[in-house]
Structure formats: C-alpha cells, structure tokens
Amino acid sequence: MIGTIDGRRARLWAELIVLFGGVPLLLALALPPTAMWTVLGVTTGAGLVLLHVTPGFSWSELGKGGIDWRATALFTLATVVVATAMTLWLMPEMLFFLPQNLPQLWLTILLFYPFVSALPQEVIFRPLFFRRYGHLFPEAGLIWVNAALFSLAHLMYRDPVVLGMTFCGGLAFAWAYHRRGSFWTAVIMHALAGGIVFTVGLGRLFYSGAVGN
C-alpha cells in the first residue's frame, strides 16, 4: 500500500514538472516561436484528459460557487490603473493603439480572448493544478506556487513586466478559485485582464509575435 501511494505521488510530481515546468522552459529556451500554438494545444489537451481522470473530480463542480462581482470589480479597477500606468511609463505611444488604429482587430481580440485563451488557461492552472496536484504542497503556500507556475508559463515572452503582471494576476485567479471556490470568477477576471491589457496598449508585450523577442 505504501509503495502504491509513493508511486502515485512520484507520478504526479513527474506530471507536474513536465506540464508546468518543462513545457514553459522548452517554449522559452529550446523551441522556435512557430511551435508555440502546437505545443500549447497538445499540452492543453493532455491537461484536460488528466483533469478528467483525476479521482473525485467532476466537470459539474466548475459551475459551483457564485461569481464574486465585488472582487471582480476591484480587480478590474486595479488592472486598469496598473496597465495604464505601465503603458504610459514603458510605451506611451501605444496607449489605446488598437481601439484607435485597428478597431476590428481589437474587437476580435475582445471577442475571442475569453474563449481561446482565458478559459483553457484557467481550466489547466486552476482546477487541474489544485484538484490533481494541490495536495503535493503545503496549503499555506499553495496559491503562491500556483501564481509562480502561471508566471513561468509566460517565460517565452522574456519580459519582466509580463512575468510580474502574470504572477500578480495568477494570485488573484488562484484566490478566486481556491479561496472563494468560484471557477467562473477566475475566468471572468482573467478575460477582463486580457481585454484591458490589449485595450490600453500593454498587449504589445503579450501577443504571440513577441515570443522569442
């Protein structure tokens, strides 16, 4: 019995290291930027399968927990302030560049980002991480570990601003899911953050063309 438990724990550690450590490092340091979407697609698919077979997990649980609109509003306000300030500081010429110069692209990003980026990322980094691997870490540091791994997933952009903002965002999303028990609060926060970043101009650091630069 002890051997079985130890074996399963070792397998979970191996999965965790590959998914949340190995893949980001490969994308950032070894693979060409053109491989990004293929690797992310395969990784997301693998993550969905692993979540599905996680003992005790049910997809219906993602609908539990009401949306914390107060926390979402406060997070949105903070994101607007920080993202605008960072844009004015780092690249003032990009302030509101997309809505002013490329409105169709901007609207396309706002429409598809929640479903193509925010939702799949949240499934992998919140339910999969906490339900399958959360018990591997002390509870006191669990949210911090999750935020650090979420930030690491953006290492391919090779930008300290991106890493810092995704770490802070990861803390908020992890808190919404793990502490408030609301997956959809995390998804909405993530979607709003992405929309804000691309609206104010900081999205220049986050778009796929910035990978490897």
Automatic annotation (TrEMBL):
Domain of life: Bacteria
UniProt source species: Pontivivens ytuae
Native organism taxonomy: Bacteria, Pseudomonadati, Pseudomonadota, Alphaproteobacteria, Rhodobacterales
Residue ranges occupied by any CAAX prenyl protease 2/Lysostaphin resistance protein A-like domain in the UniProt entry: 104-193
Full protein name: CPBP family intramembrane metalloprotease
Spans traversing the lipid bilayer: 12-31, 37-59, 71-92, 104-124, 136-155, 161-177, 184-207
UniProt keyword Protease, yes or no: yes
Sample GO molecular function, one term: metallopeptidase activity
Tagged with keyword Glycoprotein: no
A GO BP entry: proteolysis
PANTHER family: CAAX AMINO TERMINAL PROTEASE FAMILY PROTEIN, SLR1288 PROTEIN
Entry keywords, A to Z: Hydrolase, Membrane, Metalloprotease, Protease, Transmembrane, Transmembrane helix
